[in-house]
Structures are given as structure tokens and as C-alpha cells.
Amino acid sequence: MEYKVLVRMNEKLFLRDPENSELGRRIIQQGIQLMAEVGFEDTTFRKLADRINSKEASIYRYFENKHRLLVYLVAWYWQWLEYQVVFQTNNLIDPREKLERILKLLLLKDLTRPNVPTPTDDTNILALHSIVIREASKAYLTHHVTEHNKQQLFKPHKDFCGRVADIILEYRPDYPYARSLASSLLETAHHQAFFMQYLPSLTDFGTGPDNQSNEEDRLLNFLRHLLFSSLETTNF
Amino acid sequence: MEYKVLVRMNEKLFLRDPENSELGRRIIQQGIQLMAEVGFEDTTFRKLADRINSKEASIYRYFENKHRLLVYLVAWYWQWLEYQVVFQTNNLIDPREKLERILKLLLLKDLTRPNVPTPTDDTNILALHSIVIREASKAYLTHHVTEHNKQQLFKPHKDFCGRVADIILEYRPDYPYARSLASSLLETAHHQAFFMQYLPSLTDFGTGPDNQSNEEDRLLNFLRHLLFSSLETTNF
DNA sequence: GCAAAAATGATAGTATAACTATCAAAAAAA
DNA sequence: TTTTTTTGATAGTTATACTATCATTTTTGC
Fold first, then answer.
1. Which ranges of chain A would DSSP assign to H, the alpha helix?
2. Can you list the residues of chain A whose pLDDT is less than 70?
3. Minimal-distance CA residue of chain B relative to A141
4. Chain A interface includes B145 (CB < 8 A)
């Protein structure tokens, strides 16, 4: 039996739901590929259209512009990640265990643990993750944040952050910075991963071709230390 | 007696040194104003030229493009901040005190403490700070990071980060994540300030028009807690 | 103060991105 | 098999991000 976990998206994120047509799905899949390859600024709807043997105008029927496509992809990622967290922390009681799972998920570790139905297998999660690392902050670092926020475009991000904050509060009900700690943790995970790869002197982690997973473990240790040392320090 | 602290910039950051001419200085000053007002994406050299009663082509003689202008502004900011740190921690022996000063500087607090020569008084630090908060990550989140990094464009950022890391090691010589903690702290300070203003549900800090400085103090408390709880937790 | 050099202004032009519009053809739904 | 919806194909508009050129102004060296 196969699972197909579908991520239902806020309607404000698109003009026409890309999940509902073959062309739409190709826009998403190849959009992920293209953006992962050339980056957000060098992505154009023309290039994307060529890649899927379609036309620029057709893509505009799905997304207002490429920024909205980015926002869509990032939102999809957060919803997907939230689903993973829900699934993986489902039977856990110890909030510390839950937080551990979250840390690993943030770095895309242990994805292949048994019984996790990877939703929409055709989505290239690795490529999407690299997009999130490099481009996600461009989704909100715009002159139109407030407007976009009103349209709920960042709800998946906020929901995920809220869920992490709730688990933080499970672990330590009197912790006063649950949401800030949660959002900082997400940002830090992504930024450190980026720095590790491109600006290693901003980190303590190298990234040779050989010991890559070892260095990723060290990043995980850092995040764990940051998180739990803050949660276990009593004087605020 | 007046001080004029000049920040000497890496020559790779510009085509012609904007500090060496009246036009160049106007490009910088009004560039800061414009970018703070309309944001990076909506800034164009044409608008900037109009604002300073000059021409697009003239600005191109100073900066290759607006991204390089942003990189320049951000680099200037880091160098300025490093100078502030050097100045303010000059006579301090206690590394904890030094770190406290850094936290405040990151949030642009206590700028007006006595005897701090605010370098180039004509530079609008507040506007520049808001640019750094909203746009700084766009300086390195590009497809050309590696290339730009080779040209040393991010050296001021890395130097500042390194200086903070050194003080962290003064405070706790065996701390294994000094640079990552430093870079995370900078990022977190900026991101939380942004979230506080535009996506408050990602933080624990409001930002009403009334109690603004109070909420900024709470952000400071959070950063302090994050920093010192990590530094004082012994098991890694 | 003058000649040479450098910087800027003024104007024009190119390439490309970011759309919008239109209508015919194909596909899907009723 | 009509009707509706979606896509293809083509074209066009506006704005940005530049580059080029040459005259004019400003600066610099002497």
C-alpha cells in the first residue's frame, strides 16, 4: 500500500492550484530543479517554460510572479516539515526526544526512518531544502512583508515555528522566549548550513568532500547545545 | 576637537572610491536613505541619480551595480560596528562586560555613550542599521557567493564575527563553537528585530508604538540568555 | 593662471526581464 | 458532442540594467 500525503496549500499562494494539473505539477517540480540550480535571481519564467516545453504566459496563469513561486515553495516546505514532525513525534512522550527529532529534521537527517511516508515522492526534497537554505529569507525580506503576511502567506512558517515553541514549552513551561528560540533555531540551522558550505570562516565546521556527514553532526551538536543550554538555564 | 574616523574600505568593493568625491559621498548617503525607504529590490540607480541630481551613468562609474552598492554598505556597517566594539571594549578586562557591550551595540543601544566619536557624522546609522536588518543577507545569499568571497567582499563581516568569537574564547577558552555562536548571534539579533517589527508571531516581543524600547530590552535579554547560557553550559 | 587630465553631464541606445493581451487549438467536462 | 476550460503561439509594453559616446566642467600639476 502506498501513501500519498497531500499538502493542501493556502489559495492565496497561487492563481491556479498547481497540484491540480499536469502542467502545474511540472511547474513545481522543474521550478524546484531550476531554482536549486541557478538560484532565485537567475530563475525566470521563460527559462522554466522552456524547460517544461511550455510557455511563459502559461506559468503566469499559475503564479503572479517568481517571488510568489518562491513563497509557495517555501510554504510547501514548512508544511511538509511540520507533517514530518507530527509524524515522527507522534508516539513520543518525552519532549526532549521530540526536540531531538526536530533538530535532526531541520538538517534533513533520519528522513528515511521506517514508516515515514515521504509525501509526494516526486518532490525533490533535497533540492527544495537547498532552496530553503539559500532563498527562504527572500520570501519575507521584502517591502511587501506586511501585505503578504495579511494574506497569510507565511502561515506555514509561523505554524511550524509555533509547533516547535509548544514543544519547547512542554519541555519547560516557564521558558519565556519559546517562539523566539524556535524561530532562531530554524534560522540558525539554515544559516549555519549555508555558511558551512560557502563562508566556512563564519562557522566552526568545515565541509571537505570526505568528512561531510561528520561536520553535519557537529552542526547538529551545536544546535542541540544552543537549544538545551538555553532551556536548562534557570535565571532569565 | 573633532574626530573623523574614516573607514578604509577594500578596493574591490567599488570601481571608484565614493569617499573621495562629493558625488561619491552623495551616492552613499542618499543611497542609504533610498534603500532604507524603498528596500533593495525597488532601489534603482536611476531613482538614486534623480535624488542626487546626477545621472545613472555617473553612479555606474562608482559601483558595478546595485548589489555591489549593497555589499559596500553592509561592509561599511560591519567595519563601523567593529570600530565601535574596539572603542567601547578598550579599557575593559572582564570579557563578560565586553560581550554585554557587543549585545547592546548589535541592537544599536548606548551609541551615545560619552567619548565615542561617531565616525562620519553624516552617515545615517539608523537608516543603515535598518538596511542591514532587512537586506544584509542578500549580500551573500547569491549565486556568486564564492566568487565574491574570493574578492574579500565579506571580510568586514568575517572580521567582526572573528572578533566576537575571540572575546567568546576569552570568556570561555574551551568553548568549541565560538565562531558559529558569534555568527548566529549577529543573525539572530537582526532577524529577531525584523520579526519583531513585521512578523511578531515569530517572536515573543511585541512592538507597539508605546513600549518599543521596553520590548527591545526584552530582545536584549533573550540574546543575553542565549549567549551566556550556551557559554556557561559545560557538557558539550 | 594655464594646459592636461580626470570627472561628470547629457543623451542615446541595447538586451532582457517582467509582465499583459489576444486568439486559435487542444483537452476536459457536461 | 457541445460547452467550458486550459494551453499554445505570438506579439507587444514597460521598466530595468546596463554600455557607449562626446561635450562640458572640474581638478590637478606645473
1. 22-38, 45-51, 56-60, 66-88, 95-106, 125-140, 145-150, 155-171, 178-198, 212-232
2. 1-6, 112-122, 208-210, 236
3. B134
4. yes
